[in-house]
Task: structure prediction
Amino acid sequence: MQVSVDSRSPVDASADVLALPLASLDPSKPKLPARIAAVDRALGGRISSIVSSGDFRGKQGQSVLVYPAGEIGTRRVLLVGMGDEGSLDAEALRCAAGTAMSQAAARHASSVAIAAPNVRRLRAAAVAQALAEGAVLAGYRFDAHRSPPEDAPGEVAAVSLSFDRGVDLRAARAGAARGVCLGESQNVARDLSNEPANELPPSELARRSQRVAREVGLRVRVLDVPELKRRKMGGILAVGQGSANPPRLIVLEHNAPPTRGRAKTRSRQPTICLVGKGITFDSGGISIKPSAGMEEMKHDMSGAAAVVGALRACAVLKVPLHVVGIIAAAENMPSGTAYRPGDIVTAMSGKTIEVMNTDAEGRVVLADALHFARTEFEPRAMIDLATLTGACVIALGKLASGAFGNSERLVEIVRQAGDVASERAWPMPLWEGHRKQIRSEVADIKNTGGREAGASTAAAFLSNFVGDTPWVHLDIAGTGWTSKPGAYQGRGATGVGVRILLEVLRDWKSKRLD
Ligand code: BES
Ligand code: MN
Ligand code: ZN
Result:
């Protein structure tokens, strides 16, 4: 999809649909923003009569379609509600663009012009970014495996964002380009997460990562079973051993330092590691899950999907950091070769893990991925993303990812980035008491700590493998997919993680960790 920025008056728009986002209006004294008032005048006051009728009050999600009779260059004018003026933010803009896109697509329009609203708290670049994100995200469909239905919506090929004269168009264009990149990268993550497990075993997740890497110019390395064995990655190997589809460790690198001979050179830019849980299907293993809802466990690699999407965005946006994505990919299955409750496995770090429940597999694969990240790359910071615990879904629902870590400062950086990107991350406790809960009598630690504080004990488990590297763990079990469609988000994978990560990495050097 093409997104362009101009400073045309909406009256002169020539697109198939002209979308006019409006904040809440009082039908008794409607006051339209100047540029929309100009459209209203051109249409002989039809917009004000709709508003004074009370049929359109600018509520979030509301939309009304108006058909001009040739007075202006466009055939359809769509009023889109954004909700209260005082609470307008980037999310309201994403939703408005999303509503405009789906209304346009339903009518097989191929071009949309959006009159970019003035939002007091946002600069033009941020407005353009949010509108572009909403448009690109709303255009997403997962139809790789179906023939198009009769009533399939069309595809909008071009979106133009029209700003007031006087705004910095160069900045707006840069914002739009960033928004398109983030939206597309998030869609890459959604595609991976939505792919069913038969189509996306670990080897295929690796191939798809390699394809993305080739497209945008990332270095990529895939470790297969012999290599995992050589490196004594007992965690990933244990979880993967029950499946006919063997595990992989996938490493994606943006701004990789040049390799001289076989010796590794240190990157001159700070290194940040992004680690993703890539369980391509989580049946629970021998501690098998109940069958109701088990199909959702194809999404158990949403953390990995976010890492691929984020690395793609880093490359496209030329983020001035050495960013490494590390994905622990395995399928958790019950079989004659599966790992069992009671097993003691030795992780790459040398720590031993008593397996209490084979369904607590994410932390077992992440143990190796985090240790590998730390020892191989000596990063300034690590962030992992994982659909790790049902307990986190109970705590925060689908409204926020859980944020745990060993550095209050890094947790705060991540929380703030989540606010800006509208991918909320909420700080959760990780205390000595949680670490005590996973002490084992026969191994160094055990992989579950009982029913209490399940999200925190999972994070406490991970903390055993990060050393003193500043680290944040994002539990995206609640936010990774949804069954309730929204303005720019359909049923299925959300691609959560891409926007928050890119916001964390933005101006990284100005965010002091100490
Ligand atoms: N992938 C699941 C967590 C999950 C559950 C994600 C529901 C999204 C929705 C994870 O591997 C898991 O099974 N966790 C267990 C841990 C327990 C056995 C300690 C859980 O949360 O029940
Ligand atoms: Mn599990
Ligand atoms: Zn899982």
Q: What stands out?
A: The mean pLDDT is 97.
